[in-house]
Every structure is written in C-alpha cells, then in structure tokens.
Amino acid sequence: MIKANNLKKVYRVGELDLTVIDNLSISINEGEFISFIGPSGSGKSTVLNMLGCLDTPTFGDIEINSQDITKLNKTQLANFRGEHIGFIFQSFNLIPVLTVYENIEYPLIMIQNLAEEERKLRVEKLLKEVGMFEHKDKTPDKISGGQMQRVAIARALVTNPKIVFADEPTANLDSKTAHMIIELMKKIQKEHNTTFVFATHDEKIVENVDRLITLVDGNIVEDVYTKRGQHE
Ligand code: ADP
Ligand code: MG
C-alpha cells in the first residue's frame, strides 16, 4: 500500500543544510495499525509528512496505491492527498469559525464534488460514529479537547481515505480521554479497514498497534510486529 525507497530529507536552516532523514526505506501494508516511536527530534513528523503527502522528500520515491507520488506536481499531490489520505494532528487543527458539522463537511466541499444530500449522509454518519451528533452545531471553542479530536477524526475519515496518518494524536489529551480516542480509532480501523500510521510517545497507543518502528536520528533502528499483530 505504501512503499518508500531511499528517502532523504534535507531542511535548509539559514546557511546550513540539515539532513534529518537519510536513506530510509519502508513498506506499510493495507490495514496495518502501525506507529513510529522514538525520541523528540528523531524525525517522526518528517517521515509522516512525507508519506502523507504534506511534504516532499529531497530524494527518494514514495509509492502509494501504486502511484509514485514524487512524480506529481503540487496540485496533483494535493488532489491525491485529498482522495487517499486523512491526517490527524496533535493540536486538532479545526477551523474555529466553522461548526462541528461544517468542519467535518469541509474536505468534501474542498476536495470531492459531492451532491449536498450525499455530503449530509456522510457527515451525519460520522458525527454519530464519533459520538458528536448532538454537538454538531457548536463551534470548536464550545467543546473539550477530546471532543475536538473526535471531530478531527471524523474530518479525516469523511473522504473515505484508505490511509490515516495521526501525528501525536493524544499528546494534548488527559489519559482517560486519550484512552477513549485510541479505542475509537481501533474501532474505526476494524470497521473501515483503514490503515493507521501514528507517530507517538503514548504508551497506550504503543500497546495497541500491530507494528512498531523505532526512529533514532532519522534512522530505523527497529521494526517489529507486536503480539497483537501476530495474533489478531
Ligand atoms: P519528531 O517528530 O520525531 O520530534 P521532527 O521530524 O519534527 O521529529 O524533526 C526532526 C529534526 O528535523 C529535528 O532536528 C527538527 O529540529 C528538524 N526539523 C523539523 N522540521 C524542520 C523544518 N521545517 N526546518 C528545519 N528543521 C526542521
Ligand atoms: Mg513530531
């Protein structure tokens, strides 16, 4: 489903070229619940952003659903991302002036040219799935952090992506709320067979994934399938 070969990422910082990822290759299979772990600054977000089409590698190629995304121009890449990928962020990134309902509907208006009736069906189904239906007319400032992340999850899923990337999705939540959010993502992964790719420090996510990839200084130092992955 995802195949990345010899990825390199160089950031230009003032006069300096900073090589953050060098020669990283990885394959991710359909339906995997997988996490990158590793110290802060080890390159987790950089890798997620490249695999998730938010950023482009300096060298190397990335194939997603048999499409080499490094061959696409900016507009094509944005369209590809809209069709195939959902993204969940640590800080939720909801649009403050839109309601819960409108935040979830937004990608459908921006990316997929769906009829209003079909949009409504999709948004309402997801509102129910993430337990936010009764809050649909509130703006983000009127709901809690856990509720904001539920909305962000629904927004990531509304286009029916095959792959969802989640960068530290529980880092701004208390542990009980984080637990509920993880359970929600597990349920969604099972029901939709969505591939979930995390970057996290959260032990509770680590306990729940099928596969753990440890990054240190931009290198994969360990790539293991967990017990959950082998037995389920
Ligand atoms: P992690 O998500 O594991 O904390 P990041 O991918 O955010 O790691 O960062 C990896 C390294 O790249 C760090 O040294 C960070 O300072 C650097 N870095 C990340 N983004 C940028 C950027 N936009 N410009 C310059 N350096 C960056
Ligand atoms: Mg990060």
Automatic annotation (TrEMBL):
<dbReference type="InterPro" id="IPR027417">
    <property type="entry name" value="P-loop_NTPase"/>
</dbReference>
<dbReference type="InterPro" id="IPR015854">
    <property type="entry name" value="ABC_transpr_LolD-like"/>
</dbReference>
<dbReference type="GO" id="GO:0022857">
    <property type="term" value="F:transmembrane transporter activity"/>
</dbReference>
<dbReference type="GO" id="GO:0005886">
    <property type="term" value="C:plasma membrane"/>
</dbReference>
<keyword id="KW-0547">Nucleotide-binding</keyword>
<dbReference type="InterPro" id="IPR017911">
    <property type="entry name" value="MacB-like_ATP-bd"/>
</dbReference>
<dbReference type="GO" id="GO:0098796">
    <property type="term" value="C:membrane protein complex"/>
</dbReference>
<dbReference type="Pfam" id="PF00005">
    <property type="entry name" value="ABC_tran"/>
</dbReference>
<protein>
    <submittedName>
        <fullName>ABC transporter ATP-binding protein</fullName>
    </submittedName>
</protein>
<dbReference type="InterPro" id="IPR017871">
    <property type="entry name" value="ABC_transporter-like_CS"/>
</dbReference>
<dbReference type="GO" id="GO:0016887">
    <property type="term" value="F:ATP hydrolysis activity"/>
</dbReference>
<keyword id="KW-0813">Transport</keyword>
<dbReference type="GO" id="GO:0005524">
    <property type="term" value="F:ATP binding"/>
</dbReference>
<dbReference type="InterPro" id="IPR003439">
    <property type="entry name" value="ABC_transporter-like_ATP-bd"/>
</dbReference>
<keyword id="KW-0067">ATP-binding</keyword>
<feature type="domain" description="ABC transporter">
    <location>
        <begin position="2"/>
        <end position="231"/>
    </location>
</feature>
<dbReference type="InterPro" id="IPR003593">
    <property type="entry name" value="AAA+_ATPase"/>
</dbReference>
<comment type="similarity">
    <text>Belongs to the ABC transporter superfamily. Macrolide exporter (TC 3.A.1.122) family.</text>
</comment>
